[in-house]
Amino acid sequence: DAGVIQSPRHEVTEMGQEVTLRCKPISGHDYLFWYRQTMMRGLELLIYFNNNVPIDDSGMPEDRFSAKMPNASFSTLKIQPSEPRDSAVYFCASRRPGPGDTQYFGPGTRLTVL
Amino acid sequence: AQSVSQHNHHVILSEAASLELGCNYSYGGTVNLFWYVQYPGQHLQLLLKYFSGDPLVKGIKGFEAEFIKSKFSFNLRKPSVQWSDTAEYFCAVVPGYSSASKIIFGSGTRLSIRP
Predict the structure, then answer these.
(1) Which of A81, A89, B72, B88 is geometrically suited to a Cys-Cys bond with A108, CB 3.0 to 4.6 A?
(2) Is B105 within 8 Å of A48 when comparing Cβ atoms?
(3) Which string of b and e fits B43-57 if b means at least 16 CB within 10 Å?
(4) Alpha-carbon distance B53 to B42, whole Å?
């Protein structure tokens, strides 16, 4: 299995631009999670989906952030408009049902907003 | 609110020293416990996990962790560390039996090994 796939791996953009991050979970995993990691705030859960439905988006920082999961094999996290404080590494993770199941992380997207 | 505490933010050891990283959680019911490792510039990977059964769990690369229910703890140990263990270590908890329970991560402990 290829694991969780994220694209792009690096993104540099200017303040005010729209940014779209993409994630393909492991096949058969019906939970998908989006995290943000910064030095200041550590690892933060932004939102997670179960069977393509958003379950908890309480971690989404503000209305500039939105996430979708149109099907079981694809999710996007969009920031519009982007700001310098959004600079971080964004990880996607997926897992099978069952609380004891392992969450598998993607390689992350390093976002820099100038 | 449920939380996970990792009291050591940064630990510095010499090679061959023994390691113990603390992890405490606040949840009185059934829990599933995890330790993840993040090597520099990489994503989080599972080191080991506890779901049920023997409270002493062995993971990859010589790591182990012990679940002590009475202390709400799941400390990570390794008898002899190597330079390649330099990484950030995250303890995580999934409370309850429900598969809808989300994983709660601690703030992480950065481990630096002196060669």
Answers:
(1) A89
(2) no
(3) bbebbbbbbeeeeeb
(4) 31
pLDDT tens column, A28-75:
999 999 999 998 888 889 999 999 999 999 899 889 999 999 999 999
For an interface test with A, which of B43, B74, B89, B109 has the most A Cβ atoms less than 10 Å from its Cβ? B43
| Interface list for A 81-100 with B (CB within 8 A) | 91, 93, 97-100
CA distance A50 to B112: 37
- Could you tell me if A108 lies within 8 Å of chain B, comparing CB atoms? yes
| d(CA B23, nearest CA chain A) in Å | 16
Closest-CA residue to A91 (of A78, A108, A73, A112): A108
Chain A contact present for B3, CB below 8 A: no
Q: Which of B42, B85, B45 is nearest to B62 (CA)?
A: B85
Q: pLDDT tens per residue, chain B (115 residues)?
A: 678 999 889 999 999 999 999 999 998 888 889 999 999 989 999 999 998 899 999 999 999 999 999 999 999 999 999 999 999 999 999 887 655 667 889 999 999 999 8
The DSSP symbol for B69 reads G
